[in-house]
Amino acid sequence: MSQIFFTSVLLIFSIFIRVPLSFLLIILKNLFPFLKNRIEFERQNIIDERCLSFKKENLNADYCFEVSSEGELEQVRPLIEIFLLQNKRIEIIFASPSVEKKCLNMAAAYPDLIRVYRLPIAGFSPLNFLYFQSVWQWVSAPKILFCRYDFYPELLLLKCLNKKLIL
To answer: Is 149 helix (H, G, I), strand (E, B) or coil?
Structure first.
């Protein structure tokens, strides 16, 4: 019962609060430079081929990692490297521009095995359209590995799409 309640709260929050908030942030982006920068950062997912979901190629990743900082990426890097040696496909979701360069370099070094995705915090939507992006439509891996405690509601709701969440 409590799991259903928790999932319902996350879903309500994501749909009825996050989506309208994303609309508002995108409307206000030209008034606040930091907001415009964040939205432009997230929009790189649309134009960078290293961000193309494995789903677009009718493939699935084996593992998806969520990292927010360079330190978190370094903590999971040995595990990622083990999986790469086994030719496993990896998805990396990152939230901070501080880790972008390292994630993009990893994706460039393993273009067939790694995809990266900037978490759409300002432009979240359940569906991809215009400025809005959906992590739900991007993730193809059955297992999501969280490094530390970045429990974004939209990532926790991947559980509803039969994904296994691992901390």
So the answer is: coil
- Angle, nearest 10°, between helix axes 19-28 and 33-47? 110
One pLDDT digit (tens) per residue for the chain, 167 residues: 588 888 888 888 888 888 899 989 989 999 999 999 999 999 999 999 999 999 999 999 999 999 988 999 999 999 999 999 999 999 999 999 999 999 999 999 999 999 999 999 999 888 888 779 999 999 999 999 998 777 788 888 888 889 999 98
Distance CA 159, CA 129 (A): 23
What's the CA gap between 157 and 11, in Å, rounded?
7
Sequence-ordered alpha helix ranges (H) in the chain: 2-12, 19-28, 33-47, 70-85, 100-109, 135-138, 153-156
Would strands 143-146 and 164-166 be described as parallel, antiparallel, or unpaired? Answer: parallel
